[in-house]
Amino acid sequence: MPKTKNALVGAHFMNGDVACAEGAITAGCRFFAGYPITPATEIAEHLSQRMPEFGGIYVQMEDEIASMAAVIGASYSGLKAMTATSGPGFSLMQENIGLAVMTEAPCVVVDVMRGGPSTGQPTMPGQQDVMQAKWGSHGDYGIVALTPSSVQEMFNLTVEAFNLSETYRVPTLLMADEIVAHMWEKVVIPPTDKLRIVNRKKPNGPREKYLPFKPDADLVPPMACFGEGYRFHATGLTHDERGFPQTSSSEVQSRLVKRLCEKIEKNSGKIIRVEEVMLEDADVVVVAYGIVARAALSGIRKAREKGIKAGLLRLITLWPFPEKIVARVAGQAKAIVVPEMNCGQLVREVERAAKETPVAFLSKLGEEPHTPLEILEVIRRNS
Amino acid sequence: MVQEMVHPFSKYLRAEMMPHIWCPGCGNGIVLNCFVHALDELQTDLDRLVVVSGIGCIGRTAGYTNADSFHTTHGRSLAFATGVKLANPELEVVVISGDGDLFAIGGNHFIHAARRNIGVKVLCANNLNYGMTGGQQGPTTPLESVTTTSPYGNIEHPFNLVHLAAASGATYVARWTSLHVRRLTQSIEKMMQKKGFCFVEVLSPCPEIYGRYNRMRSGLEMMAWFKRASVVGNFSDPSKADITQDKIVVGEFVDVEKLSYEKMLHEKISKINEKALDGVS
Fold first, then answer.
1. Does residue B240 contact residue B249 with C-beta atoms inside 8 Å?
2. Which of B95, B107, B51, B76 is nearest to A97 (CA)?
């Protein structure tokens, strides 16, 4: 293996896509497969230049289906692997995101959300893929999705996404948006040895007794890789702990699918991250994420200036959904406001968790996210 | 004391996976047999071998082989294998899959894997239809063949797979039928020793499904067709190797040397990596 160049450290001025690419390198990612697409292309461009400097691989595949397949192959060959795309490519990747879920391949998928459906508005922001992140591939499964609100978080959460994917052997999605990806901001990168970098756990028993899909107490199986002498089989078919297909056993199907869901659900307390701003006495709570959360922060400050007790619950983890936190916050508030750059997606989860507390939804589509004044107006009406 | 007899090739197979799923008269067992013979002849290190399959009857081969193996989504075996080979070029990566998997749903991945010249070896069992789903017409179904989705006779022109592979840039291209076990085994051995993208097609009888609709109800009848129609034409023009009722041109079509993608990539990476390390403490 080639020696490793030191990752970028210190304060830099960069855009979100570049910050994401640098975050991947810092996290130990050494394989990127992708296909050009606005507004995620700069991640591929930057990694095509940077990966070889670290002995890593950049490969441009023939489409997003192939990109996702190659990422799983590289992950099974022992490398931390990633791809990056936007809505149209994210749709194509769903097939093999399901394969990564089923074969428990650690990997990171970045979706820089633009306006949809279909080709939509390639250079405009959106938050229209957040339900697809949870439900996009067929079948039931648990998944992890994070959402950055700043260029700094494009870096931080890319590192975190790798850590979560390696810990839980699950594809981890970074649901960014066009603004966060293309905006230039200051990013401070600590030395890599000061960061928490997680690597997948390896089997330690005798090779001939290795069961590739037998989970530990945390519901995650240790992972052998190709060429390590374990001679294991993995398949997208329903399989037993040996990795062998079991296509007609209800018991195996039930045990496997439930574990794939539960390994995320039961560890959700360790996965979920939110930011709480001025919630202690808040009558009106704005629940927001991504670039919209920054307008929401400004909105609640303006509300406070007008004497309205407003607060912000910023979701950093979208999936698993922070249901208990939303329920707790809603229980103390008179009203919830949810601004999203879609026609109403995550608001449904908020409504479900908020129970009796009324939830007001504010949709915005197209070029710009909500303005602070638009959010202030909804806070005022619900105060 | 009765001694248990162990088949000399059992070390290449996963006994726990048997019995296999294939029908009587199917050629896939012959394909697997020839592959295993080639592994034995070459004394392949099974710890460095990765067998990748897509979906379909022959797709189960990955699971039957006692090496690291992966059964991908339909059509994606070559894209997956590209990731495996690039991430660890020391591994011997073989894709064993069917004509529908590799050339219909996976056709785009095939031409691009060949174009890049990734060092993955492809063994394609061509049974002229979608066997696992009950015999629908596919990209290799001959004109006028009857299948469950071409009940009035197929009107789609089939791919000539060796021509497609050669035109896409494969460094080794061969075609045999399941009748030609020795020459098939030799071709598999040959491709396993080459560095670039290689393609071996095997016409594999599907009497239970394809043959049933096309007046060849047994494996033997299908093998008789292969015997009657096969013409060995080594290094003949692949563009003239269309499969018809009367003529199946078999043999080696391409055998050239070309730097593999992973070799070019890793040499470049090494140079850039070294340059980047200058001045790094």
1. yes
2. B76
Question: Is the whole-model pTM more than 0.80?
Answer: yes
For residue B66, give the nearest of A71, A231, A244 by CB distance.
A231
User: What's the average model confidence in pLDDT over A280-303?
Assistant: 98
- How far apart, in whole angstroms, are the C-alpha atoms of residue A128 and residue A177? 10
Average pLDDT of adjacent 10-residue blocks, chain B of 281 residues: 85 94 96 98 98 96 97 98 98 98 98 98 98 97 97 98 98 98 98 98 97 96 98 96 96 98 97 84 50
Tell which residue, B5, B32, B89, has the closest CA to residue B204.
Answer: B32
**Chain B, 149-208: which have a CB under 8 Å from a chain A CB?**
none
State the Cα–Cα distance between residues A234 and A244, nearest whole angstrom.
7
- Could you give the domains of chain B? 10-277 (3.40.50.970)
Burial level of B257, CB count in 10 A (0-12/13-18/19+)? Answer: exposed
Average pLDDT over chain A, rounded to an integer: 97
Q: pLDDT (tens digit, 9 = 90+) per residue, A288-297?
A: 999 999 999 9
For residue A6, the chain B residue with the least C-alpha distance is: B280
Is A275-381 in the same CATH topology as A10-194?
yes
Q: What is the CATH number of domain A10-194?
A: 3.40.50.970
With a CB cutoff of 8 Å and minimum separation 6, the contacts of B275 are none
Pairing of strands A107-115, A171-177: parallel
**Residue in B with minimal Cα distance to A242:** B16
Q: Are B113 and B75 in contact (CB under 8 A)?
A: no
pLDDT classification of A5: cutoffs 50, 70, 90: confident
Q: What pLDDT sits at residue B280?
A: 65
Across the interface, whether the CB atoms of B91 and A227 are under 8 A apart is answered yes
Helix (H, G, I), strand (E, B) or coil at A59: strand
Q: Name the residue among B124, B117, B122, B121 with its Cα closest to residue B138.
A: B124
Return the CATH class of domain A275-381. Answer: alpha beta
- The ipTM (two decimal places) reads 0.97
Q: What is the pLDDT of residue B278?
A: 79
Distance CA B127, CA A168 (A): 40
Per domain, the residue ranges of chain A are: 10-194, 275-381
Say whether pLDDT at A251 is over 50.
Answer: yes
B132 contact residues in A (CB cutoff 8 A): none
Residues B83, A73: C-beta atoms closer than 8 Å: yes
Task: Using CB atoms, pick whichever of B72, B90, B112 lies closest to residue A62.
Answer: B112
